[in-house]
Design goal:
Elements: E1 2-8, E2 15-21, E3 32-40, H1 43-50, E4 66-74, E5 84-88, E6 103-106, E7 112-113, H2 120-147, E8 155-158, H3 164-175, E9 179-184, H4 190-196, E10 200-203, H5 205-208, E11 219-224, H6 228-236, E12 238-246, H7 260-264, E13 268-271, H8 279-292, H9 295-300, E14 302-306, H10 310-318, E15 325-329
Helix pairs in contact: 1-10, 2-3, 2-8
Length: 332
Amino acid sequence: MFQALLITQPDTGYRCELARLEDKQLPALGDVTVRVACSTLNYKDGLAITGRSPVVRSFPMVPGIDFAGSVVQSDHPRWKAGDRVLLNGYGVGETHWGGLAQMARVKGDWLVPLPDTLSEREAMAIGTAGYTAMLCVQALQRHWAEAGVLPGSGEVLVTGASGGVGSVAVSLLAGLGHTVVASTGRPEEAPYLTALGAASVIDRQTLSAPGKPLQRERWLGVVDAVGSHTLANACASTRYGGAVAACGLAQGMDLPASVAPFILRGVTLYGIDSVMAPMPRRLSAWETLARTLDRRRLASMTREIGLADAMAVAGEILAGKVRGRVVVDVNR
């Protein structure tokens, strides 16, 4: 028996509750069984738990798009009992039972070895949000390397900076020597963001309204977790030959933009997908995170809750009230 958050859709409507399940109820599709130590709450988890968006595609469903733990049983050649592993994406928590549970059964091909220098808690303090931030930063690094751009040669914008992706992106970019400008809708979080390494903090309203198709050149690069007008304005004010890595849609999935920045300034827009990213890119991201991310800053952006608390905190995430990262200790 194990505990899990379970989403069902009975005649009375969408429901998420803490349930006690039997091991035999785990999905048949999967060749590795993992005892989960920690999971996280991401924006997508908030949507799934509350039913605010049709994230869940089949019922019943255990939410949770990532987890870290140890292999209990394996029919996969790469994994054996006792191996420490983590998982991000692949539809887990949407079409396949996810990590907000004490047990999970998944395909071994989806698993990443947990770096030796990371605990399960630290891995989930990073979580899908931090892993996505790393994919964004690596895309910008590849772009800058090709262009011969050095750290400190211009400002780098991070939108949605007080959220999970944004917090890790600020810390990573600052650690690499970049001048980071953090955009947030919560001005009271300015001390938090400067402690993570931001050189300055701006109000998101400067980017969130409709703007001109081509604006004053400012950003060497951008990590955008917001989308819509914010992304359009970020592109419009990126410097010649600069790059924007887009990974989120908190403001909306539309892009009310012009082609002007792309054809007149040679701006590049990188779409960052963490769900189905190829394994070599995943391994590179996690190895780099384990080696470079400042653990003190990671601790300062992390809050820990128990499994039973996740339903209430899911609503807080959607309301924009959660700062940084939330680790879920599934055994609490």
